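Example 4.3 (complexes with small molecules)
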Amino acid sequence: MTAQTSKMRRRLRQSLLGPHVLAFLPALALAAFWLGGETLLLGVALGIPLLFALSGGFAFGASDGGLTRQLDLTDSHGLIELADLALARARLAQMSTACFLIEADGIAALERRHGEVAARGARDLLLGRLRSLLRDGDTAIRTGDIRYAVLLAPNLRLDLESLLQIANRLQATLEEPTIFDGITQYISVSVGFCGSPRLPHNAMGEQLVDAATTALAEALANGPSAVRAWSDSMRTARTARQSLRNEVARALENGQIQPWYQPQLCTSTGRVSGVEALARWIHPDRGVIAPAQFFRALEDNGRMDRLGEIILNHTLSALRSWDKAGVEIPRVGVNFSMNELRNPKLVDRIKWELDRFDLTPDRLGIEVLETVIAETDDGIVVRNIAGLSKLGCQVDLDDFGTGHASITSLRRFAIARLKIDRSFVSQVDRDEEQRRMIAAILGMADRLGLETLAEGVESLGEHALLSQLGCDHVQGFGIARPMPKDQLAEWVTDHNLRIAETPTLGRNTI
Ligand code: C2E
Ligand code: CA
Ligand code: CA
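Answer. The structure with calcium ion bound is encoded below.
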C-alpha cells in the first residue's frame, strides 16, 4: 500500500470513527427516509458500516480490545494509524490514551556475540514481556529492530504520575536480565511517552507519535536507561537545537569558526614549547563561543570532519606566517576527533597538507583523547595514529588520567607525551593527595620514556610545584588564555623579552 493510499484510508476512517458520526447517524437515517424512502434508508443504514469495513475500521478487531492482536511488527505509518485509532476510541469514550516509545540497547551486541537467531529471540521475548504487562485493549507492537510502541486503551486517569509509573514498570520488566547460551545478558531500555491530555483537543495520531518520539530522543540523549515525558519546553528546545544545527553549518562555511591558540611553556627553560589550537566560533552577535556550546550540533550534522579540515588548514597557515615573521613556535597541537581518526585517508591528507605549507611533520602535534585509545579496537584508528607518529608528528594523549588507557596501548599507539588532565593539576600546591597523584604519574611517565604536560594550570603556585616535581611542560589560564593568531604572536614576543630580562623562570628556581 502506498503512503498516499494509507493516508487516505486513515482520513476516511477518522471521519467515520469520530463521535460526530454517532451524533448524526439518526439524523442521516431520517433524512434518507424522508428524501428517498425505504431504499435510501436501507442504503444509509447498510452503506455506512460497509464503508467503515472497507476503510479498514474492523481490521484490528477493536471489539476484543486488542488493536494489534495478529500484528507483531509495523512501520511508522502503521504506528500512526494505530495512534489515530487509539485517540478516536479514547475520545468516543470521553477518556484519554497515551503512547510509549521504547528503545532497547544491547540487542545489537547480542547479535554480534550470539548471532541472528538469538537477537530474534530477544526481540520476541521483549515483546512478550511488554504484552504480559498490559491490560485488555492496550496495544504493544515492535516498530523496528530495537524499538517498541505501546498505546493505551481508553483510560480515565492518565496524569503524569500514573504515566510515569507505567513507564517505569515497562522499563523494569524489559530490563530484567536474560540468559542466552548460559550467559546472562543485560539490555537497557529508554522510554519516551506522551499522554493525550497533553496535546491539543483535536490532535491526530501523528502528533501523539511525534511527541513520544521527541521524548524518546531526549531520554536517549540522557541515557542509558532514562525515562522522559513529553513537554512543550522539549519542543522549544528541539526547535532551538535544529536552528543551532543550521546556523553552525553555515558558520563553518562562512569562516566564523576558526582556531585560537593557547601557549605551552617548557618548565626547564621557561620558553614557549608549543601552542594548542582550540576551535572558537566568532559569532557576529553573540561574541566568542567555546566548543562545548556548538560541538554537539556539529556532531549531529556529521560535520566534525569538516571542522577538522578547517582547523588544520588555519593552524598550518598560522604556523607558516609565524615562521615568516620570526616568531618562534616549535609546534602546534591539533585535537582530532574519533571521526577524523577513522578516516582511512587521514595520514595521506596530513602529509599532503604539510607539504602544501612546506612544513616538516615534527611541527604538528596530534592530540588524541585517552578515552579514544582506551575504548577503540578499530584497526584504522590504530594504523592512523601509529602512521602519523611514524611520519614524524608528535602524538599527545589528551585528558590523561580520565580514560583508563592501558600501558600496552600507550606503546601500540606510539604516544610521545601525556597531557595530564586538569582534575589532577588543580590545587596541586595545596592538596597533598593531588601532589601524590601527580608525582606517581610523572614517575610512571619517566620510566616509560614519555614526556609530560600539565593542563589547566591556573595559579603561580601550581606552576611552581609542577616545575619542581619535574613535569616537562605547562599550559593553562595562569600562563595565558587561548587567543587569536596575531595576538599570540605578540604574546610570544613579549614573553621572550620578559624571560630574557628575568632568566630565573626555569624549573629549579621558581
Ligand atoms: P582540551 O583539548 O582538553 O582543551 C583544553 C580546554 O581547557 C580548552 O577548552 C581550554 O580553553 C581549557 N583550558 C585551558 N587552560 C585552562 C585553565 O587553566 N582552566 C580551565 N578551567 N580551563 C582551561 P575549550 O577550548 O573550551 O575546548 C574544550 C574541548 O573541546 C577541548 O578540550 C577539546 O577536547 C575540544 N576541542 C577544542 N577544539 C577542538 C578542535 O579543533 N577539534 C576537536 N576535535 N576538538 C576540539
Ligand atoms: Ca587537547
Ligand atoms: Ca585536555
